[in-house]
Design goal:
Layout: H1 31-34, H2 45-58, H3 75-93, H4 99-120, H5 127-139, H6 144-158, H7 165-175, H8 177-186, H9 200-223, H10 225-232, H11 239-242, H12 246-254, H13 259-283, H14 295-314, H15 328-352
Helix pairs in contact: 2-3, 2-5, 3-4, 3-5, 3-6, 3-8, 4-5, 4-6, 6-7, 6-8, 7-9, 8-9, 9-13, 9-14, 13-14, 14-15
Amino acid sequence: MTTVSTPTFPPAAAPAVPPGLDGRIKPLALLPLLGPDAPPQQWSLQQAQLYVHTLTTSHYENFSVLSSLVPPRLRPHFAAVYAFCRWADDLGDETGADAVARTRSLHLLSWWREELLRCFAGQVSHPVFIALRPTITQFALPIIPFDDLIRAFEQDQHVTRYQTWDELLGYCRLSANPVGRLVLMLSGERPPTDNAPSDDRQRTLFEMSDSICTALQLTNFWQDVLRDLLERDRIYLPAADSGVTEAHLRDWLNRSDDPAARIPYIRALRPLVDRTWDLFHAGEPLPARLSPEIRPVVALFSAGGQAVLRSVQAIGCATLWERPRLTKARKASLVLRAAAAAWWHRLTHSTTS
């Protein structure tokens, strides 16, 4: 068991990191060193912090979790939470798509839950949990959001097709909403615990966060229809609500040069995109209701998701054949806009107070 203490950021000068403990390496490739069958190792807090920091800054899709907008005091905590999510995600997604691979994923996710339980009991040995334990302690984080994320990745091994919109939202409640709730808790907000009137503000904040996070997850689904189908054998378009089945998708994909094959897919995706916009709009007031410290971070991720959704629309919702991406210039523009909005708020607030 490793003793933990309050983290620092950037990570303090650490002892030489043992060969292989490199955050630039994908988690599955590190299983011989860090997996359930790995020989016992002793990792210091500094080594663990350095690992999760490198992991977090090396693996991201649209925006770095540790952008300059994240307050320095929260960066080690963001990195620790992200590292937990990254490992859980890869254990569920990167083993393959056949039955053997899914069985392996379930085994690895079960081990990850055991490590989580040990972490909450104060017994940590894996670098991710060595880094995460001080965060859990300092912010009194509950186990439920972490366990919900593992449950989502376990569900991915059993459920690869969805019939209704409500089923899809149920998945997002496990796979996406916990992340936003953890971010709110890192910023000092507490989730509502009962129906007391004093909890009304918190309930509203967490509901708006859930809306944004669900919209972000759905946007990712609409962006990655092709990759999910071919690489993971998963279809997130709700068949009953969209009228789209696996047979349709594979037929349309095989007729990629036929414009007529694109029309039914586009017509099916557009209403789902519209419903995703409704969720983004429901969460739109959230950043303004948060502390100035965390406001630009939340605003950036919401704006980034909306930018991706616009890019889905910009290619005519033809994501079965083309995956939309944000350019570096567009990402930079969004970061600058979020930073400028935060600066303007601080300026006007200091002027009027």
